[in-house]
Structures are given as C-alpha cells and as structure tokens.
Amino acid sequence: MVLKELQNIFHIELDAIYGKHEVDSFFYLCTEHYLNVPRIQLTLDPGLAITKPETDTFFKVLEDLKQQKPIQYILGETEFYGLPFKVNEHVLIPRPETEELVDLIIRTFTSSAVEKSIKILDIGTGSGCIAISLAKNLPNVEVYALDISKEALKVAKQNAELNKVDINFIEASILDNTCHSALDADSNFDVIVSNPPYVRNLEKQEIQPNVLDNEPHLALFVEDDNPLLFYKAITNFALKNLKPKGTLYFEINQYLGEETKALLTDTNFQKVELLKDLNGNDRMLKGIKI
Asked: Which residues contact 287 (CB under 8 A, 6 or more apart)?
C-alpha cells in the first residue's frame, strides 16, 4: 500500500477525534518508529509503498487510536528532556510540565558550580523520567528513586539501562512511616523531588478520555477530602531526611498552589517559592530546609 493513501485513511478516521495536525504527528511518529522512514522522505517520495504486514501494523495502530489509546503506549516509547523513555500502562506518560521541574533543578545546580557530590531522592518515580534526567545531566550525583509499584520500577530500571545511568531504586510507599528504613536510616539528601498523585476526583471531568481510560489511576488521583496527602507525607519525610539547606521540589496541582505552599512555610522551610509553568499555571514549588 502507498503510504500517502494510508495517511489519508488516518485523516478520514481520526481527524474528528484529534484534529488534522495531531493526526499528521501520529502518522509521522509511526513511520519513523515502524519503518524508519522520516517525514522528509515521504515528501520527497510520495509514491513510497509498504508491505502487507507493515500495512496491517498501521491498521492496528489506527484502531488503537480510534479507542483513544495514547500514541506513547502504542509505540511503547516517548521522549523526555531529550532522552528516550520506554512507557506502558503501568507508568504515567511524562509531561512537559515535569520537564520544566527537571530543568529548574538542573539550572539551579549547574549555575552554582557545585563540585561536591549531590545526593538526590525522587519520590514516586514512575517511568524514572525525573531521576534519570537528573542523573544524566548533573555531574557528581547519586540518585535514589522510590515507587510503590513493582511494575513501574521494572519500567524505570529499563529506562536507566537505556540511558546508561546508575539509579538506586527502592520499592516502598512514602505513606508508610517505615519507608525510610528501606532508604538507609541515616540517609541525608541534598535534594528531594516529587511529582506525586495530585488530581482530585472532582477534577476527573477535566481529564481527557485517553488519560482517564489508560494511565494508572494510582499515580494520578487523590481523594477530594485529603488532596495534599502525599505532600504532607513527603514534607514530613524531608524534614527528617534533607540536609540543612537541602532543597525540596514539588510538581503541584495548579488549583492548590497556596495550600501546598503553606505546608512548607508552616514547617521548617525558608525561601519558599511557588512557580508557574509555561502555560501560566501554578505548577512548581521549592523550599530550602533551615
């Protein structure tokens, strides 16, 4: 089948769901992933044809997209902070907002020309995107990554190997007061970072079906009556396990910026900053332990 004809079928079937631009993006991702054919080659060779097995693969992708399965899960991979990551239904698909959090940490430490070793803990690591990006981009770092999900940690370990970084992975729940024993009771960290579950059930109607029906709810949602559950637990953990002048970084619910900030200002943190993402939403929080 000629690829251009297949592209037209994608548009006929999917434009009403995603829009023309997004459908083009999906199609070119597929041609690169399955055929190793870049976008420019399709333009230069509009008569390019593929075999029946290859055509069948594209029709399977088409059916998955019609069911609003995320393209990242279909391909089994995505990119985050310029690095490749494997993803599946056991981990959240990394978001651009989280890239901004990673960039904030990297800029902070590269601008201060830190020469000593830095010890970092990523709580709720999922695919490992935060921990691995920090390990890849910061010199002299020792990175720990914690998650309650055994399946998520399998993916994160694959991603650490894929990106050739050493991460100390820990299977534990931050909500369990004994989890610090899994970390090494006297571990003191220079940085603790987390993008924990923060979407309230009442906000589910704002979530797109492709997210709601496919991504792990364990990593997304919290109860309406205790939306800061994880932030409280992580802040208390940080009070005991951050070094003096160590920094706590959060990605947060845009609707709960001031409430989350108050957790840090009411405890042993100073220079607490609530920061906006590129869309102008309250998204990041940082504070320094006194």
From this structure: 247, 248, 264, 265, 269, 270, 271, 272, 273
Same domain, 187 and 221: yes
Q: Kindly state the tokens that stand for 16.
A: 């009403």
Tell whether 124 and 232 lie within a shared domain: yes
Instruction: Give whole-number Cα distances, 67 to 9, 14, 90, 208, in Å.
Output: 16, 10, 18, 12
User: Helices 3-18 and 52-66, interaxial angle, to 10°?
Assistant: 0
- CA 54 to chain CA centroid, nearest Å: 31
3-state secondary structure of 263: helix
Q: So what's the pLDDT on residue 265?
A: 96
In terms of residue numbers, what domain contains 184? 90-289
User: What is the spatial distance between Cα 59 and Cα 71, in angstroms, rounded to a whole number?
Assistant: 14
Handedness of CA 268, 271, 276, 278 (dihedral sign): negative
Whether the Cβ atoms of residue 134 and residue 287 lie closer than 8 Å to each other: no
Q: How far apart are CA 61 and CA 192, in angstroms?
A: 39
Report d(CA 125, CA 159) in Å as an integer. Answer: 11
* Residue pLDDT, tens place only, 243-288: 999 999 999 999 999 999 999 999 989 999 999 999 999 999 999 9
Within a domain: 184: yes
Answer yes or no: are the C-beta atoms of 65 and 74 closer than 8 Å.
yes
pTM above 0.90, yes or no: yes
What are the CA-CA distances from residue 261 to residues 40, 96, 130, 287, 290 (Å)? 47, 22, 21, 9, 16
